Amino acid sequence: MSAGSKLKTASVTVALIGAVAAGGYFAKPYLVGSMGAGPAVAQTAPQAMPVKVAPVETQQIRLWSEFSGRLSAIDQVELRPQVSGTIQEVRFEDGQMVQKGDVLMVIDPRPYEAAVAEAKAELNAAGHTLRLAKKQRVRAEQLVKKGHVSKAVRDQRVSDHTVAVSRVNSAKAQLIQAEINLNYAYVKAPISGRLSRAEITVGNLVEAGPNAPVLTSIVSTDEIYADFDVDERNYLRYVHELTKVGGAVSELPVELTIDVGELRVYKGHIHSFDNQIDPATGTIRARAIFSNESGSLLPGMFAELRLGGSDVEDLVLLNPGDIGTDQDRKFVYVVGEGSTVEYREVALGASVEGKRVITRGLAQGDQVILGGLMKVRPGVPVTPILPETAQTAETTQLSATADTAKAEPSN
């Protein structure tokens, strides 16, 4: 580079440095003014955010508690032979529905028929003996008055008559027992219901007694029990409700749900509570009763049960999405004084049809902010909009947008 070029470059550099310094000097007053030396700029007040709200209203709701239980038959009988003999007939099919008094099995009745015939003959003979003894007694009483026979003879005739009466009574008892045994030879259903299978088949010998085998079993089906355990807290609540209205436990409704590909609900009521709480589990055994005319409910089935209160209550319900969690507390946002957001701690109760019962924290008329947990904070000004109003506004806006689109000319 030549000496002339170097001199020109140095001159340009000096000129640029001077310009920068001058710019900084003239810019300084503006910077100072913006940092507080100049006039203050007025801040604009935050605009109120539109939020959907719902006024708190109570609804008449029956509270339900859910339990699991098992079904059991109201009547269940194991049939055993009451006389000995060979099984001659089986008159039912496995699983058949029968009525009380139907003959199910026949034990060879011939020995018992013979016993009945023998007892009848004994009774007939005892009757003849009694009639003769009665005549002799009457004759002896007449003759002793005339002195034709001694008192000893009369006393003997009286004794013979008394023995004859006893023999007749004994013969009658033997006949009754023989007829009972003959009746036992025809094994009958003691209750109406559904039979199990035949445990003893035709041709087998059975004997009566404490070790007698089970021939079959039968369970009633018209009604059925559901047994389940109720925790102490819920039990006390139900008892307290009944005490207030002076009702009986049978007034407590129970719903039973069975899953048969679709949920089928049966309605019943409490039959009884046990007489003590199990200290090991803190529960009391409850028994509900349900109609089962179709016979589709079977003993031993697992069932989901809901136990309801004796009466409906005025309750506040909220969607879970409108309830926030603050560590171990639950809260909602409501529209407070000056149309600002207010934090309100609430206490939750049971779940009812997907909603939660609010037992404490809200009063009639409070406006709860819906779905705004992530959008608003306490103290923020808001414009409350009822859901119906918001829906109308959205519909109007959509209609206006559609009309505008129609009015635009096509290219």
Quickly describe the structure.
With 411 residues, the protein is of the alpha+beta class. The protein has helices at 3-37, 110-146, 151-184, 232-245, 387-407, and strands spanning 49-55, 58-61, 64-73, 76-79, 85-90, 97-98, 103-107, 186-188, 193-195, 205-206, 216-219, 223-231, 253-259, 263-273, 283-291, 302-308, 313-318, 324-326, 329-335, 341-352, 355-360, 367-369, 382-385.
Word description of this protein:
InterPro entries: MdtA-like_b-barrel, MdtA-like_BSH, MdtA-like_C, RND_pump_MFP. Belongs to the membrane fusion protein (MFP) (TC 8.A.1) family. One of its GO terms (molecular function) is transmembrane transporter activity. This is Efflux RND transporter periplasmic adaptor subunit. It is found in: Cell envelope. This protein has 411 residues and is an alpha+beta fold. The chain folds into 4 domains: 38 residues; 94 residues, Efflux pump adaptor protein, beta barrel domain (Elongation Factor Tu (Ef-tu), domain 3, Beta Barrel); 144 residues, Beta Barrel (OB fold (Dihydrolipoamide Acetyltransferase, E2P)); 83 residues, conserved putative lor/sdh protein from methanococcus maripaludis s2 fold (Beta Barrel). The protein is built from 5 helices and 23 strands. The strands form 5 sheets. The protein has a 6-stranded antiparallel beta sheet with strand order 2-17-21-20-19-18, with no helix packed on it. A hairpin with a 2-residue loop joins strand 20 and strand 21. Helix 2 runs antiparallel to helix 3. The chain is elongated and about 145 Å long. The two termini are 64 Å apart. The N terminus is likely disordered.
